[in-house]
Amino acid sequence: MAGHSKWANIKHRKAAQDAKRGKVFTKIIRELVVAAKNGGPSPEDNPTLRSVMDKALTANMKKDTIEKAIARGAGSAEGDDYEAMTYEGYGASGVAVYVKCLSDNRNRTVSEVRHAFTKCGGNLGTDGSVAYLFSNAGQLFIESGDEDAIMEVALEAGAEDVISLDDGSFEIRTAPEDFLDVKNALVAAGHEVEGEVTMIPSTETELDVETAEKVQRLIDMLEDLDDVQAVYTNAAFPEEAEAS
C-alpha cells in the first residue's frame, strides 16, 4: 500500500464535499430519481436505491427529501429521462481519471467534461482507455481499533478483505452488494466508519505537491459540473496536499 494516509485522504475528500453540500444534494437527488425509476421504489428489492439512500443519509439529507425523490422517480415524472454515461481521460503526469455522469443531454455533458480536461492540462481519452485500471467495490475505513475484532466482524458480515494500513487505520473491501451489510455490522460493533461503493484503482500514481494541485483542480472542476456524479482517479495525494 502507498505510504500516504488513506484515512486522511478520505477525510479530506469528505470535507471538500461538505463545502459543496448544496450541489452534492442535487446530485444525490438525481441518483435517487434514476435508481427508483430503473429499479422500483423499494430499497429491499433495489440494491442500487438502497446504496444511494445510504449515501443520502450519510450526507445528512432529510428523510422527506429522500422520499420525495424516490416517489418522483417511481412515478416516472416527465423530465427525468437521465442517461448514465462514463468518460475516461488523463490528468497531469498521466493520472487516470474516470468520470461517471447522469445527463439528459449527452452533447452538453461531453463538451463540458472535455473542456475541464483541456483547461486543467489533461486530455479526454477513448472508452476503455483507463477503465481497466479500476474495479467497482465497497471501500470502508476505520481510523483505529483492534485488528482481530475488526476482522472478525467484517468477514462475518461478508467483507472480502481487511487491510491494515501503515498509519494504523484499516481498509475493508467488499463486493458492492455487501457494502451496507458490512458497514452496518461495523457501526453496530461501535466503530466509526467512513466509506462508499467506489471505483478502486489497481495501481496508484504517487504525486508531488505541485502535480497534486493540478490534479485536484481537475477533480474540482469536474465535480462542479451538474451532470457529473462522481470522479475517480488513481492519484496518491501526498499528505501535504491533503492538509491544504
Description:
This protein is an alpha+beta fold and 244 residues long. The chain is 46% helix and 23% strand. The chain is built from 9 helices and 10 strands. The chain has helices at residues 6-19, 21-39, 47-58, 63-74, 106-119, 147-157, 179-188, 209-223, 239-243, and strands spanning 83-90, 96-103, 123-124, 134-142, 161-164, 170-174, 193-201, 205-206, 228-233, 235-236. The strands form 3 sheets. A 4-stranded antiparallel sheet has the order 3-1-2-9. Helix 2 (21-39) runs antiparallel to helix 3 (47-58). It is globular and about 45 Å long. The two termini are 23 Å apart. 35% of the residues are buried.
What topology does this entry show?
Blueprint: H1 6-19, H2 21-39, H3 47-58, H4 63-74, E1 83-90, E2 96-103, H5 106-119, E3 123-124, E4 134-142, H6 147-157, E5 161-164, E6 170-174, H7 179-188, E7 193-201, E8 205-206, H8 209-223, E9 228-233, E10 235-236, H9 239-243
Parallel strand pairs: 8-10
Antiparallel strand pairs: 1-2, 1-3, 2-9, 4-6, 4-7, 5-6
Helix pairs in contact: 2-3, 2-4, 6-7
